Amino acid sequence: MSLISTATSGLMSSQVVLNMIGQNVANATTEGYSRLTAQLSSNSAGGVTVDSITRVVDQYLNTQLWSATSDVGYSTSYSENITSTESLLSSDTMGIDTLLDSFYSALSSASSTPDDDASREAVLSSAEALANGFNWLSENLNDQYSSINEQLDSSVTSVNDLTSTIATLNAQIVALKQQGGDTSSLEDSRDQAVTDLSDLIAVNVSEQSDGSYTLTLGQGQPLVSGSTAATLSLDNGEISLQYGSQTFSVNDDAGGSIGGLLDYETDVLTPTISALNDLAATIADEFNTLQASGYDADGNSGSALFTYDSSNAAGTLTVSSSITSDDLAFSDSATSGSNNNSNLLLMLDLQEDQSDTYSAMVSDVAIQSSSASATLTANTELVDSVTSSIASTSGVSSDEEAANLLTYQAAYEANAKVITVASELFDTLMSMF
């Protein structure tokens, strides 16, 4: 190989590397960009060749990031919703514990003057406030079903968009690789799409020999294979996956924010609403039982204080429309007069169990909320740690690129000088003839 040819190969290789360095510098702050590195080798003729330009990627770290991102997505949606529930249950003004205390405080005041109209009216008023508190809490908790469904619907749409994008990128990467083209930017875009997808739902990723990704869900349901993407759909809170002619359920162990929403609904929201309905029915039944066994101010058997629909006790709990303050059955005898408070004292005995039941409900949610918050913090720290590791491996270092730039600039200039000298030598040689 001639001196000029050797220097020309060095000149061209340096130019390729300089262009690569420029691309790295230009994308130093681009999210998801993986820096490029060039592999050079000496050829048989003594020149230099750029064998390849590849992304600097640690696939193990990417896998860690996708897993940790799913955990953060799960913890975030779970923690945000359970925190909201905890806040509702422990409301200072509408919390059932506060309203129960007010109700029993009114009963306690009435026990010293059971024949006082004002005291009796206070009992009825606090009973109505208690029923309204159950209604308010039930409505807000049930509204979360609608909110969850809206969030799931939006998430399912996003999943379908991302899987379609990944399938398209798979096709483009495979085709470009077969042509010997540079697929680095496409691969960066695909990795970023997988990261975004992982936030929504947990995925397993495997790279195929042709450069495409195959994605599956936690229980093996196919999500993306080559250029084909599955489609998720939401129906009545149930998520299903359609892949070709096959249909799979996705509700169990979905992971990501979708899994957090589904598990929150199953593990927290539904049991809490059920417990609230049970407590509302218990309070109503216990008071109505004592009302029926006692006597009102006129010596008549007491009538029901509360009414409710058994299918939604907390949401429909109300003070009986026909009851008046005189109908409160504080007496245990039809003939003892309105000053008798024996049955009223039995009513006061109900407070401890009812309050303890509600406190246990609030405590259970608070414990789960605290655990969810701690898990979210730990998962977020893990994502930050993995992201930092990826940045140190795949990220662009301005100082390193500047040093490389000087190195290859010098190499470019040196090769250009060699060509100049070779040309001068050739001209001198020719002038001798």
Give an account of the 3D structure.
It is a single chain. The chain has 433 residues and is of the alpha+beta class. It has helices at residues 3-26, 59-89, 96-112, 117-178, 184-200, 256-293, 313-316, 342-348, 351-394, 398-431, and strands at 36-42, 48-55, 204-207, 213-216, 222-225, 228-229, 231-235, 238-243, 246-249, 306-307, 318-319. The protein contains 10 helices and 11 strands. The strands form 4 sheets. It has a 4-stranded antiparallel β-sheet, covered by helices on one side. α2 (59-89) packs antiparallel against α9, α4 packs antiparallel against α5 and α6 (256-293) packs antiparallel against α9. The protein is rod-shaped, with a radius of gyration of 37 Å. The two termini are 24 Å apart. The model has no long low-confidence stretch (mean pLDDT 89).
- Provide mean pLDDT, rounded: 89
Number of helices: 10
What does the main sheet amount to?
4 strands, antiparallel
Order of helices and strands, N to C? Answer: HEEHHHHEEEEEEEHEHEHHH
Q: How are the strands of the biggest sheet laid out side by side?
A: 3-4-5-6
Task: Give the strand tally.
Answer: 11
Beta-strand percent range: 5-15%
End-to-end Cα distance, whole Å, is 24 Å
Q: Low-confidence spans: pLDDT under 50, at least 5 residues?
A: none
Q: What is the helix content? A: 55-70%
Rg measurement, Å? 37 Å
| Shape descriptor | rod-shaped
Counting helices, strands and paired strands, the structural category is alpha+beta
